[in-house]
Design goal:
Order of helices and strands: EHEHHHHEHEEEHEEHEEEHEEHEHEEH
Radius of gyration: 24 Å
Strand order of the largest sheet: 3-4-2-1-7-9-10-8
Number of helices: 12
CATH superfamily of the largest domain: Acetylglutamate kinase-like
Distance between the termini: 39 Å
Number of domains: 2
Strand content: 15-25%
Number of strands: 16
Bound molecules: aspartic acid
Length: 440
């Protein structure tokens, strides 16, 4: 059994947590490849090292040097090394890093990546493992996407024959050889890429929570932990706002079908959540896996008699939306009606009025109106495809709770039911669905 372990920002926040990470790694000698994030917050008022590094880049652009902000980063790492009792010349590494940040004036990526770089250097020293730079393994193509073939090949050649390795998360190199990062939280993606490259049996993702919860604990404090989640359920829940794992972390694993285990560094005795391909280890008896949602959508609702006979009607409406560069969230439709659901964030500064005007000009609807402040809630679970009554259970519960449903969309894969409600009913809606399926 070969495991790749990724440790998130809180696990790397201070020397004490480095100690916890070490005991997890040394508890099983299957944990041979370690991917680390930059140190996160030590407490609520603290600033993440990555955020300070983005500020360093801004300082370089505005005042020509990152010296003052970098001092905070320098102090953090010097303290960690001192508290760990390491005989490691971190000062020279920090001096070189500061120089590098001062010299890079075109993108923030180099600066942003240094939290992971420094974390991995210190962790490698502390564990007595080999440091391998992600810049030598992970490659992006000229469009900024991962060059998966090149990367996989590099990992296979560079890591074959070595065990006990620490790799920084979050970055690689672009096609010109410059450091480039993934989007925020991207060390999760690095972990997946390494897991695939070394053909791991399991990718353990160590965080500060004991797994995915059925729904947001700020709304339902007693929300249960999901024991098993499929890759595609994870996609649905992440897209709708569940944020334990980077939304793109499963892509590198899809073909190799490596499971991801979300674990808690601070409660290593908890089993966490297993994220698996649907056909492996998925619990077929479960109807609903999770409930997630997002607020702040606008629904453009269009009515026109005999709309379904008019060739190209939907295309014309969507062309207007495309013309404004907007992403469509959902398009529920009836015989004479069509709604387009868009994120309100993208419709600010008069864009909404322009879109509505152009749709009017393009398809001459009988009626067009906009509903704002809509929240979308997704109830997700493969189990609902095999059981009848799931939708009715949701809608009965919501009717009894007096929640007015504005829109319903059942995904064609029958693994989710999406409901639109007024933003003010958002919390009540999630709580009600939770009680209907998981309540006592
Ligand atoms: N340190 C980076 C961030 O804060 C990447 C990560 O933690 O995964 O986004």
């Amino acid at each position: 059994m070969l495991k790749v372990c990724k440790f998130g920002g809180t696990s790397m926040a201070n020397a004490e947590n480095f100690g916890k990470v070490k005991s997890i790694i040394t508890a099983e000698n299957e944990r041979k490849f370690v991917v680390v994030s930059a140190p996160g917050k030590r407490d609520k008022s603290d600033i993440k090292i990555t955020d300070l590094l983005y500020k360093c880049y801004d300082d370089v652009i505005s005042i020509g040097s990152c010296h003052d902000t970098f001092k905070l980063i320098r102090d953090r790492f010097t303290e960690i090394v001192k508290d760990l009792g390491l005989n490691f010349d971190i000062e020279s590494v920090l001096d070189e890093t500061e120089k590098g940040i001062d010299a890079e004036k075109t993108t923030p990526d180099f600066a942003a990546s240094r939290g992971e770089y420094l974390s991995a250097r210190v962790m490698a020293e502390y564990l007595g493992y080999t440091f391998v730079d992600a810049a030598d393994l992970i490659r992006f193509d000229s469009n900024g996407n991962l060059n998966a073939v090149y990367t996989d090949d590099k990992i296979k050649t560079k890591l074959s024959g070595i065990e006990n390795v620490v790799i920084p998360g979050f970055y690689g190199k672009d096609s010109f050889g410059k450091i480039k990062t993934f989007s925020r939280g991207g060390s999760d993606v690095t972990g997946s890429i390494i897991a695939k490259g070394v053909s791991a049996d399991l990718y353990e993702n160590w965080t500060d929570v004991s797994g995915f919860l059925v729904c947001d604990p700020r709304i339902v404090p007693e929300a249960q932990i999901i024991d098993t989640l499929s890759y595609s359920e994870l996609r649905e829940l992440s897209y709708m706002g569940a944020s334990v794992l980077h939304a793109e972390a499963i892509f590198p694993l899809i073909t190799s079908k490596i499971p991801i285990n979300i674990r808690n560094t601070f409660r290593p005795q908890d089993k966490g959540t297993m994220i698996v391909p649907t056909e492996h280890g998925y619990n077929p008896d479960k109807v609903i896996t999770g409930i997630a949602g997002k607020k702040n959508f606008s629904v453009i609702s269009i009515e026109k008699s005999l709309m379904n006979n008019e060739v190209g009607f939907i295309r014309k409406v969507l062309s207007v939306v495309e013309h404004y560069g907007l992403c469509v969230e959902h398009v529920p439709s009836g015989i004479d009606t069509l709604s387009v659901i868009l994120s309100s964030e993208e419709l600010k500064n008069g864009v909404l009025d322009d879109v509505v005007r152009e749709i009017r000009e393009s398809v001459a609807p009988d009626y067009i109106h906009v509903i704002e402040n809509v929240a979308l809630i997704a109830t997700v679970g493969h189990g609902m495809a095999r059981r009848s009554g799931t939708a009715s259970k949701i809608f009965t519960a919501l009717a009894e709770a007096n929640v007015n449903i504005k829109m319903i969309d059942q995904g064609s894969s029958e693994q989710n039911i999406i409901i639109g409600v007024a933003g003010s009913d958002y919390e009540k809606c999630i709580r009600t669905i939770y009680n209907a399926f998981f309540g006592a």
